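Hi,

I'm pasting everything inline rather than attaching a file, because the server keeps stripping attachments. The sequence lines come first, and each chain or strand is labelled.
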Amino acid sequence: MRQFLLVCLIALSCVHPTLSQDTGKNQTTQEIKNEVLKVEQEQDQAVAASDIKTLDRIWADNLVYTAPNGELLTKAQHLAEFQSGIRKFETMKHDDFNVRVYGDSVVVLTGRSTSMLLYNGEVSEGPRRFTNVFVKMDGRWQLVSHHVTNVAK
Amino acid sequence: MQRMPVRRTLLIFVVISSLQVCAAWAQSPQERIEQTKKEVLAVNEKVGLAIRTGDTKALSQILSDTFDYTNQTGELLDKAQMLANIRSGKLSTISQDYGDYHFRIYGDTVVLTGISRTSLVYGGKPSKGPRRFTRIYINQNGRWLLVAQHVTLVVPE
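And the predicted assembly:
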């Protein structure tokens, strides 16, 4: 009887949604942080170079972007800004990263931006504060939310 | 007090877990999404109520210990600072109005965006918005916790 119950418990732990996690491989928090920081850096380089192909890969299909003026954009709308040149980065500087790891598939990354960019012909130098949310889907980290606020002077 | 035998305890656990598994399997993906939205909206309303009434005890139970809050002035605050602002009266809410909710659901993680037209006073300065907010909720051990919030004032066109 005891063995039967033990088998049941193990089986339930494997299938129960609140008990099981799709771990793939066991990673330490630091390893996850390093992975996401690498993706963040790759994204920053792609933003600076208006590299649409790379941004298309890193940004999740249902990315939601809240701009410093309060506009809410989809992935397609945000990519179109880089394609058309409406949004263009002259310099890229992100720092003061703070990375929070939740489980093995969600990361909330906050940081500060003093990048110089042109948006609709107007120059913006920041500083800004941003929150990025990365979710690991299909085995890779994808940006699902990007929200930016200008720091009041 | 009489102790329940180990075998019976395990049996009860197995039966309850089995029922939970069956309930989860019985839901279609769409039903699970709707259920998640309903649960998160309920928690989101609790957050609103706690902020509005200054109930830092209730708010403390929903904010994760690692809560990151970027407010509309670009300040980055942690849980303790957010609660202290409410306790001290630095942040006070006059009226509350949230709407235009959009959900992005990734398993046990929800990205909730919306518009706030809440009338508030922060550091002596009144503000009515509108603002765009993003709230990140994560289900941990069966409880939805607010792990991050980011707010931006909407610039009039």
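Chain B has one domain: 29-153.

If the labels don't parse on your end, tell me and I'll reformat.
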